[in-house]
C-alpha cells in the first residue's frame, strides 16, 4: 500500500473546496457515525478496502456471467475478466488490511455461524463450517448478484465512505483491479445492431470511475499508467455526446476529460482521448463547457447521481443493530417517519413478487400446431382433400386436434408453478411508523420499516432482526425443513453478503412462518430482491425459455428427413410417369398420395398414447409424471442428482449406537421406528472389536455408564413421543435430535413422564425438575437439574440434586472431571416392553448410586479423555452425529437455595461425570444400496447433493455405494464453498466429476445442473424446498418430493415422488427406457411398412408398370396396418437387459446407421415380395386365378401391361380397370398387408429371434394384429365396401400365396438377425482383445 507521505497530491480544480465536500451528507449516512461528526479512524480504511474488495470480485463475476450468456462476447475480454478476477481473489486472501479485519471477525464467526445441529457433529466438520475459505465465500456472494446491483453497492460505498476525501489513500493493487473492472463495464452496450447505445451499467461505471479519480490518490496513479488508447476506447466520449442526455452530463464529460488529463503525464490534451475523426464534433462541447468550468467558483468534480442515497438491498447479517439503524435512517423503537415512506417506495418499488410470465393460450396452441410433425400431418390433410379423400382428411384432422389439445393442456397445467408463487406473498404486516403500531398491506412495506413479528404470522419481507424473544421461524418454504430455526439478532462477521440460509440466524425471510416467540426486524429487501423474489425471477426466466425434450428433438430431425424423402418421392414418381408418357394431373395426384404415405400418420398419436400408458404404469410405482414428454426423457437420463435427507435416507433421525465411558458398544435396534415398543438396546461388546468380547456377567445386559447415558437421553430432553388416537399411529413433537434420543430411552424403558415431574406437579415421581439451561450455539450444551425426592434421597435430611447434560462431545468433556466406572447397570433388559419398564425409584437410586463418588466414578485422566475423543472420531467417520452425555449428583443442605439463579450455568455445567457417547444417524433407506447398484449397472451416475457436512455426506455415500473403492471416478467430493470458486465451464471440466456435493446453496445446484448439461448429460434433479424450484425447473427432469416437498417445487417439476424414495426414481428410469424402446419399435415398424410402399411404387414407376395400388388402397393400408399394431408395440413388456445397458447417447438420433440399414432391408424385402406377386399376377393368369368368382371376367391375355406398350393410352389406360389388374392389385395388397402385420411381431427386437421374444408375450399385440386383419378381411369381402376400396374378393389360391410370403419373411428375418448377432459378437471380442 502506498505511504501517505510519498503519495501524489490529490487532484483539485482551480478552486478546490474544503475537505468536507459533501461531508455532512456522507457522514449522516455512514453507519459508524452520527450526522454531525467526522469519520472515525477505527472501522475506516480497512473496512472500506474490505468492502471494495468484495465489490471488485463481484464485478468480475458479473462480467464473466454476462460474457458467458452472450454468445457474441469477445473471448479476449472473457479471458481477461477471469485473470483479473483471480488476481483480485488472491489479493483478498493476502491483503494485510483484509487479514486484519478477518482476524477480528473469526471469533464472532465461530461463535455465531453454526446452527444447533452443527454442534452435535464431529469437531472437524464443525470447524470447517465455522471457518470457511474466505475467497470461496467472497465468490459465493456474486452468485446471484447482477452487474446493476454490484454497481449500486459500489456507488453506495463512494457516497458514504469516500466522498469528501474521507479515505484518500487505499491499497494500490486493489485500486488497479477496480480500475480494470470499471474500464470493462464502461464499454457495455445494449440495443439492436443499428441502434447500439451505451448501457445503463456503462453509464453508472463511468460516473463511479470519475468519482474515484477525485477521491483516491492511488486510483489516480492507476489511471495515469493506462495507455491512452485503452482510456479512449473505454471513455467513448463522442458516443456519450451522441447518445444524448441532460445538460449536466455534457458538463460531466468535460469534467472527466480534465480529471483524466490531470492523471496523465504532461504533454497530453483532450484530443488524445478522442478518435481523430470525432474530434471536430467534440471540440465545441469541450470549448463551451471548459469556459463554464473555468469561471466556476468551485472545483470541477463528477456530479452526484442525484436524489437521496439509500442502502442497496442485502441481508446485512454482518451489521450490528446500531449500524443498521444509522444506515436506514430509522429508529429501533419508533420506526420510520411517515414522510420517509413515499420517497423510499419511489426508489425501491412496492413489496410485490414479479408477476409470472404467462403465455397466451392461443400462443400455446399455435406452438403445438407449428410443430414439424403436425405440419406434415396438415400437409397430408390438404393432399388427401385435394385428391377427394375426405374421410382420410377427417381422420387425420382428428389426430391433429387431439394432439394439439393434449399438448396445450399439459403446458397450461405446467404453468401453474408460476401461479403458485403469487400465493406466497403475505397480505398484511404489523409495522411501526412514527412510534405507532399499525396493520398495513404488506405490499406497502419499504426498506427501513420496522416490522413486528408474532407467533403464527408470516414474515412479510426479508428482515434483519433487531430484537428476538425466543423467536423460532419455520423456513420450510425455502429449505424444506419443518423444524423451527432459532433466531439471534447478533451480527455475524463474514466476508460475504450471502450466507447459507441455515446460517442466517439474524434474518427472517419473506413468506416464512413464525412458529414460536416474537421479534422485531428492519426491512432490508422487498419484492423481487427478497429470497422468494429471486426464486420467482429464476422460475419466470426458466419458464420463458421453451426447451424441447430429447424425443421432441429427435422426432423433429426425423420429420425433416421424412419431408425431404416425401418431396423426393413425389418428384421421382411424377418425373418417371411423365417420361413414360402418362398424363401429368393423375400421376401428380398419385405422387402426392404416395408422398403422404411416407409420413406415418399414427406416429404422433401412438407416441402420445405410449407415453400416457407409461405415465399410468409409473403412477402405480409411486412416480407421478406431470408432463408426457418427460416420460421418454427419463429413459435417457445419464446423471441423477439426488438430495440425501429423505430421498437416499429415511429422513428420520435415529440413535443407533451408544458407547459408554468405558468403551462398551450398545446398539439400538429399529432406531428410526416411532413406536417405542419396537426395538431394544443390545450390548455388542467393546467398541472397535469385531469378535465377541468377554464381559463381566453383570455387564452382559448393561453397564452403569450406558444406563446413565440413557437416563440423560430421557431427562435432558424436551421432545415428546406419544400415541395419537385420532391418527392411529405414534407421533412426536420437538427437535428431530431430541426425538431420536427420547425414542432410544423409551425403547430401554425410560420414558421421561414415568420417572420425572415438572415443578409443583403432583404424583409420586422421585425426580422433580428444578431448572433448565437451554442449549445455545455458544456453549453447545444443554443441562437440566432435578431433585431426588425418593429412591436415592439421602436420609440425613440434606437435599440431593441430579444434573444431567448433553452436547457436543468436546464441550461436554471440557467440563467433566470424572467418568462413570466399571459398574453393573441398573436398567433391566428384556425382550418385551413390559419386562423392560423400569421403576422411577429404581432409576433415581441407580443414578445416585453410579454417580455418588466412591468406586462408582473414576477421575477423567488425559488418557481416558483421549480414548473418548478417538471413539468420537470413529463414530463421526461413519457419518454419525455424535453427542456427549454427562451427569453429576450434588448434596446440599436442607436450607440451601435452589433457585434458577443458584442453579445456573456456572454451577450446573462444571465438575460433571462423563457417561458416554451416543451416535445418531439418518439411516439409508431400505433397498437404496440395490437401487444405486442398478444405476451403476445401467450406466447412470448418481450424484449426492446435500446441505450436510462433507464428512457425513461422504460416509453415507460410501455406505450406499455412490462412492466405490473400485471406481476411482466416483471418489471425489467437494463443498459448496469450493464450487463457488469455479465458473460453469470449469465445473463442467472437473475430472473426475464429484459424486458428492456438500454444504451447497440453491445457486450451487443450478451451477451443477448447467455444468452437467454442458457436458452432454441428461440430468434428473431432485428438490423439495422453494429454493430448489429453479434447479428442478432447469434440469432435463425435475423431480419433486411428494411427501416433504413444497407445492411450488411439485408444480415446477416434471415428476413427483409419492414416497420420496430414490428407488422410485430408478423404477421410473426403467419405465422411461421401456417407453423409448417401445417408441423406437413402432417407429421402426411404421417406417419399414411405409418404406415398403415407397419402394414398391418407385419400382413400378421406373419400369412403367401400372401402379400396384390405387390411392384409396394406400390410405386404407395405412389405417388398418399402422395404428393398431403400433399401439400394441407401445405396450410391449420391457426387455430383459433394459437396466443392464448404458443410457443411449443423448446426441444420437432415433435411428442409427445400423437400425436404418435393418429398416431398409426389411422394407425392401416386403416391397420385393409384393412386387413379385403383383408382377406374376399381371404377366400370368394368376391375376384371374386368385379371384373368388372369375365368371366371365375375361381371359388372361386380354390385359396388356404398360411395360410392353410404353404407356400408349390407346391400348389401355390406367383408369380402365380390367378384372385381371383388379385381381393382381387385390392379391398384392393382401400380401403386403399380411407381411406388414407379421412385421409387428418381428419388430419387437432388432437382433433377437422372434422365437425367443415370443409371440404370446404381448397379448395386446395379438389383439391389435387380429383387429387389423379383421378390418382387411372386411374390406375385401364386404359388398359395397370392397367396391369403395377398389378391392375384389379373393379365393383360396390367394391365401396360399400370402401364407408362402409369410413363411419366407420369417426365414429371411431370422437370417438377418443371425447375421447381426454374429457381427455384434465379433466386435465385442475385438474390443475385449484390444
What does this molecule look like?
This protein is an alpha+beta fold and 1330 residues long. The chain contains 53 helices and 30 strands. Strands 12, 13, 14, 17, 18, 19, 20, 21, 22, 23 and 24 form an eleven-stranded mixed sheet that branches. It has an eight-stranded mixed sheet with strand order 10-30-29-28-11-25-27-26, with helices on both faces. The longest helix has 41 residues, at 1062-1102. The chain starts with 22 loop residues before the first helix and ends with a helix.
Q: Uncertain segments of ≥5 residues (pLDDT<50)?
A: 1-43, 71-81, 91-144, 690-700, 1191-1200, 1202-1217
Number of helices: 53
Q: Taking all residues together, what is the mean pLDDT? A: 76
Structural class: alpha+beta
How big a fraction of the residues is strand?
Answer: 5-15%
- Helix content, binned percent: 40-55%
Principal-axis shape equals flat
Quaternary class: single chain
Distance between the termini: 62 Å
Instruction: Indicate the radius of gyration in whole angstroms.
Output: 40 Å
- What can be said about the biggest beta sheet? 11 strands, mixed
Number of strands: 30
Break the fold down into its secondary structure elements and pairings:
Layout: H1 23-29, H2 45-69, H3 75-94, H4 96-112, H5 116-119, H6 123-130, H7 134-141, H8 147-162, H9 172-185, E1 189-190, E2 197-198, H10 200-215, H11 217-224, H12 228-235, H13 237-242, H14 247-263, H15 279-295, H16 321-328, H17 338-348, H18 361-369, H19 372-386, H20 390-414, H21 416-422, E3 428-433, E4 436-441, E5 450-453, E6 462-474, H22 476-479, E7 485-486, E8 507-508, E9 513-525, H23 531-544, H24 550-579, H25 584-598, H26 603-620, E10 623-625, H27 629-635, E11 639-643, H28 644-648, E12 654-660, E13 664-668, E14 681-686, H29 704-715, E15 720-724, E16 729-733, H30 736-747, H31 752-755, E17 756-757, E18 767-773, E19 781-788, E20 799-807, H32 809-814, E21 816-820, H33 833-836, H34 840-851, E22 857-859, H35 862-877, E23 881-892, H36 905-908, E24 912-921, H37 928-937, E25 941-945, H38 950-960, E26 973-975, H39 976-980, H40 984-988, E27 996-998, H41 1002-1014, E28 1019-1023, H42 1029-1034, E29 1037-1041, H43 1047-1052, E30 1055-1057, H44 1062-1102, H45 1111-1129, H46 1153-1179, H47 1182-1185, H48 1202-1205, H49 1219-1242, H50 1250-1253, ...
Parallel strand pairs: 11-25, 11-28, 17-18, 21-24, 25-27, 26-27, 28-29, 29-30
Antiparallel strand pairs: 1-2, 3-4, 3-5, 5-9, 6-7, 6-8, 6-9, 10-30, 12-13, 12-24, 13-14, 15-16, 18-19, 19-20, 20-23, 21-22, 23-24
Helix pairs in contact: 1-8, 2-3, 2-4, 2-8, 2-9, 3-7, 3-9, 8-10, 9-10, 9-11, 10-11, 10-14, 11-14, 14-15, 18-20, 19-20, 19-25, 24-25, 24-44, 25-44, 25-45, 26-44, 27-44, 29-30, 29-34, 44-45, 44-46, 44-49, 45-49, 45-51, 46-49, 46-53, 49-51, 49-53
Amino acid at each position: 500500500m502506498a505511504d501517505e507521505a510519498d503519495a501524489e497530491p490529490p487532484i483539485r480544480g482551480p478552486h478546490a473546496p474544503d475537505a468536507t465536500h459533501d461531508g455532512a451528507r456522507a457522514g449522516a449516512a455512514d453507519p459508524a457515525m452520527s450526522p454531525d461528526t467526522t469519520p472515525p479512524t477505527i472501522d475506516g480504511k480497512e473496512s472500506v478496502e474490505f468492502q471494495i474488495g468484495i465489490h471488485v470480485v463481484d464485478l468480475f463475476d458479473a462480467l464473466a456471467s454476462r460474457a458467458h450468456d452472450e454468445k457474441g462476447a469477445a473471448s479476449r475480454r472473457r479471458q481477461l475478466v477471469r485473470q483479473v478476477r483471480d488476481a483480485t481473489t488472491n489479493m483478498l486472501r493476502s491483503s494485510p488490511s483484509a487479514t486484519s479485519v478477518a482476524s477480528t471477525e473469526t471469533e464472532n464467526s465461530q461463535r455465531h455461524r453454526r446452527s444447533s445441529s452443527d454442534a452435535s457433529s464431529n469437531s472437524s466438520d464443525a470447524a470447517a463450517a465455522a471457518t470457511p475459505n474466505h475467497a470461496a465465500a467472497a465468490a459465493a456472494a456474486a452468485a446471484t448478484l447482477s452487474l446493476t446491483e454490484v454497481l449500486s453497492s459500489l456507488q453506495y460505498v463512494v457516497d458514504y465512505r469516500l466522498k469528501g476525501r474521507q479515505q484518500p489513500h487505499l491499497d494500490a493493487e486493489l485500486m488497479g483491479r477496480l480500475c480494470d473492472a470499471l474500464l470493462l463495464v464502461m464499454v457495455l452496450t445494449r440495443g439492436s445492431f443499428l441502434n447500439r447505445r451505451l448501457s445503463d451499467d456503462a453509464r453508472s461505471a463511468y460516473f463511479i470511475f470519475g468519482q474515484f479519480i477525485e477521491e483516491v490518490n492511488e486510483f489516480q496513479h492507476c489511471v495515469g499508467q493506462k495507455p491512452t488508447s485503452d482510456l479512449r476506447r473505454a471513455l467513448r466520449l463522442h458516443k456519450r455526446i451522441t447518445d444524448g442526455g441532460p445538460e449536466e452530463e455534457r458538463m460531466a464529460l468535460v469534467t472527466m476529460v480534465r480529471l483524466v488529463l490531470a492523471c496523465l503525464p504532461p504533454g497530453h490534451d483532450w484530443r488524445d482521448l478522442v478518435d481523430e475523426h470525432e474530434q471536430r464534433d467534440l471540440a465545441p462541447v469541450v470549448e463551451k463547457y471548459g469556459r463554464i468550468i473555468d469561471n466556476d467558483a468551485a472545483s470541477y468534480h463528477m456530479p452526484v447521481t442525484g436524489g437521496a442515497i439509500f442502502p442497496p438491498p442485502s441481508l446485512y447479517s454482518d451489521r450490528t443493530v446500531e449500524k443498521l439503524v444509522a444506515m436506514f435512517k430509522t429508529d429501533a423503537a419508533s420506526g420510520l417517519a411517515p414522510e420517509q415512506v413515499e420517497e423510499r417506495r419511489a426508489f425501491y418499488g412496492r413489496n410485490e413478487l414479479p408477476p409470472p410470465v404467462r403465455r397466451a393460450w392461443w400462443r400455446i396452441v399455435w406452438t403445438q400446431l407449428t410443430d414439424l410433425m403436425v405440419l406434415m400431418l396438415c400437409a397430408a390433410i390438404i393432399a388427401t382433400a385435394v385428391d377427394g379423400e375426405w374421410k382420410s382428411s377427417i381422420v387425420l384432422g382428428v389426430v391433429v386436434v387431439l394432439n394439439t389439445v393434449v399438448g396445450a393442456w399439459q403446458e397450461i397445467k405446467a404453468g401453474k408453478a408460476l401461479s403458485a408463487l403469487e400465493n406466497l406473498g403475505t397480505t398484511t404486516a404489523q409495522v411501526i411508523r412514527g412510534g405507532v403500531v399499525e396493520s398495513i398491506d404488506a405490499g406497502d412495506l419499504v426498506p427501513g420499516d420496522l416490522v413486528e413479528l408474532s407467533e403464527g404470522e408470516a414474515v412479510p419481507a426479508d428482515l434483519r432482526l433487531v430484537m428476538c424473544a425466543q423467536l423460532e421461524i419455520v423456513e420450510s418454504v425455502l429449505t424444506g425443513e419443518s423444524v423451527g430455526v432459532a433466531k439471534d439478532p447478533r451480527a455475524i462477521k463474514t466476508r460475504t453478503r450471502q450466507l447459507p440460509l441455515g446460517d442466517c440466524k439474524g434474518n427472517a425471510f419473506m413468506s416464512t412462518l413464525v412458529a414460536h416467540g416474537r421479534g422485531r426486524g428492519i426491512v432490508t429487501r422487498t419484492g423481487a430482491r427478497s429470497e422468494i423474489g429471486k426464486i420467482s425471477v429464476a422460475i419466470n426466466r426458466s419458464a420463458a425459455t421453451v426447451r424441447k425434450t430429447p424425443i421432441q428433438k429427435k422426432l423433429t430431425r426425423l420429420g425433416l428427413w421424412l419431408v425431404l424423402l416425401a418431396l423426393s418421392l413425389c418428384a421421382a414418381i411424377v418425373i418417371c410417369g411423365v417420361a413414360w408418357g402418362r398424363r401429368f394431373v393423375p400421376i401428380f395426384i398419385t405422387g402426392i398420395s404416395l408422398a403422404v404415405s411416407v409420413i406415418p400418420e399414427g406416429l404422433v398419436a401412438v407416441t402420445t398414447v405410449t407415453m400416457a400408458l407409461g405415465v399410468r404404469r409409473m403412477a402405480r410405482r409411486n412416480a407421478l409424471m406431470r408432463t408426457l414428454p418427460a416420460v421418454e426423457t427419463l429413459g435417457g437420463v445419464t446423471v441423477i442428482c439426488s438430495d440425501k435427507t429423505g430421498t437416499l435416507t429415511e429422513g428420520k433421525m435415529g440413535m443407533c449406537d451408544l458407547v459408554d465411558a468405558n468403551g462398551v458398544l450398545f446398539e439400538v435396534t429399529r432406531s428410526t421406528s416411532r413406536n417405542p415398543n419396537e426395538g431394544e438396546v443390545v450390548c455388542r461388546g467393546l467398541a472397535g472389536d469385531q469378535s465377541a468380547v468377554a464381559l463381566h456377567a453383570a455387564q452382559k445386559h448393561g453397564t452403569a455408564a450406558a444406563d446413565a447415558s440413557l437416563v440423560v437421553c430421557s431427562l435432558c430432553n424436551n421432545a415428546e413421543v406419544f400415541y395419537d388416537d385420532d391418527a392411529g399411529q405414534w407421533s412426536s413433537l420437538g427437535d428431530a435430535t431430541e426425538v431420536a434420543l427420547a425414542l432410544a430411552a423409551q425403547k430401554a424403558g425410560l420414558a421421561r413422564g414415568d420417572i420425572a415431574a415438572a415443578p409443583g406437579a403432583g404424583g409420586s415421581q422421585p425426580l422433580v425438575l428444578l431448572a433448565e439451561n437451554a442449549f445455545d450455539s455458544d456453549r453447545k450444551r444443554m443441562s437440566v437439574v432435578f431433585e431426588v425426592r425418593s429412591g436415592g434421597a439421602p436420609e440425613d435430611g440434606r437435599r440431593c440434586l441430579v444434573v444431567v447434560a448433553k452436547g457436543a462431545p468436546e464441550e461436554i468433556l471440557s467440563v467433566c472431571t470424572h467418568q462413570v466406572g466399571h459398574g453393573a447397570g441398573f436398567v433391566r433388559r428384556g425382550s418385551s416392553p413390559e419386562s423392560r419398564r423400569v421403576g422411577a425409584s429404581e432409576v433415581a437410586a441407580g443414578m445416585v448410586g453410579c454417580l455418588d463418588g466412591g468406586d462408582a466414578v473414576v477421575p477423567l485422566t488425559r488418557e481416558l479423555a483421549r480414548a473418548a475423543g478417538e471413539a468420537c472420531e470413529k463414530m463421526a467417520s461413519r457419518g454419525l452425529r455424535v453427542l456427549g452425555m454427562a451427569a453429576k449428583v450434588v448434596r446440599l443442605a436442607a436450607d440451601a437455595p435452589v433457585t434458577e439463579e443458584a442453579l445456573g450455568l456456572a454451577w450446573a455445567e462444571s465438575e460433571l461425570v462423563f457417561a458416554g457417547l451416543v451416535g445418531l444417524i439418518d439411516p439409508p433407506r431400505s433397498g437404496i444400496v440395490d437401487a444405486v447398484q442398478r444405476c451403476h449397472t445401467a450406466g447412470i451416475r448418481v450424484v449426492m447433493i446435500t446441505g450436510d457436512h462433507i464428512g457425513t455426506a461422504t460416509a453415507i455415500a460410501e455406505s450406499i455405494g455412490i462412492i466405490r473403492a473400485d471406481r476411482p471416478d466416483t471418489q471425489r467430493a467437494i463443498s459448496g464453498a469450493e464450487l463457488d470458486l469455479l465458473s460453469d465451464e470449469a465445473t463442467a471440466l472437473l475430472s473426475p466429476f464429484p459424486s458428492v456435493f456438500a454444504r451447497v446453496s440453491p445457486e450451487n445446484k443450478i451451477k451443477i445442473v448447467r455444468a452437467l448439461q454442458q457436458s452432454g448429460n441428461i440430468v434428473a434433479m431432485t428438490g423439495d424446498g422453494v429454493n430448489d424450484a429453479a434447479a428442478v425447473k432447469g434440469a432435463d427432469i425435475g423431480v419433486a418430493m411428494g411427501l416433504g416437498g413444497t407445492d411450488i417445487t411439485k408444480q415446477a417439476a416434471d415428476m413427483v415422488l409419492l414416497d420420496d424414495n430414490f428407488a422410485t426414481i430408478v423404477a421410473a428410469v426403467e419405465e422411461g427406457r421401456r417407453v423409448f424402446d417401445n417408441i423406437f419399435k413402432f417407429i421402426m415398424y411404421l417406417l419399414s411398412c411405409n418404406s415398403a410402399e415407397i419402394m414398391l411404387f418407385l419400382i413400378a414407376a421406373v419400369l412403367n408398370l401400372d401402379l400396384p395400388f390405387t390411392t384409396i388402397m394406400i390410405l386404407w393400408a395405412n389405417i388398418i396396418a399402422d395404428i393398431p399394431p403400433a399401439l400394441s408395440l407401445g405396450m410391449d413388456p420391457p426387455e430383459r437387459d433394459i437396466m443392464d445397458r448404458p443410457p443411449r447417447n443423448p446426441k444420437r438420433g432415433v435411428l442409427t446407421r445400423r437400425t436404418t440399414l435393418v429398416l431398409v432391408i426389411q422394407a425392401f424385402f416386403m416391397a420385393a415380395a409384393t412386387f413379385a406377386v403383383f408382377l406374376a399376377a399381371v404377366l400370368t393368369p394368376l391375376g384371374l386365378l386368385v379371384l373368388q368368382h372369375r365368371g366371365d371376367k375375361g381371359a388372361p391375355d386380354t390385359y396388356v401391361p404398360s411395360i410392353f406398350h410404353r404407356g400408349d393410352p390407346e391400348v389401355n389406360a390406367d383408369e380402365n380397370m380390367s378384372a385381371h389388374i383388379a385381381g393382381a392389385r387385390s392379391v398384392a395388397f393382401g400380401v403386403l398387408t399380411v407381411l406388414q402385420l407379421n412385421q409387428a411381431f418381428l419388430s419387437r427386437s432388432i437382433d433377437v429371434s422372434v422365437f425367443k421374444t415370443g409371440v404370446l408375450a404381448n397379448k395386446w399385440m395379438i389383439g391389435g394384429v387380429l383387429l387389423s386383419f379383421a378390418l382387411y378381411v372386411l374390406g375385401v369381402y364386404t359388398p359395397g365396401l370392397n367396391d369403395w376400396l377398389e378391392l375384389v374378393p379373393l379365393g383360396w389360391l390367394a391365401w396360399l400365396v400370402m401364407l408362402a410370403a409369410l413363411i419366407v419373411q420369417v426365414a429371411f428375418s431370422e437370417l438377418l438377425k443371425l447375421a447381426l448377432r454374429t457381427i455384434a459378437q465379433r466386435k465385442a471380442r475385438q474390443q475385449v482383445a484390444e
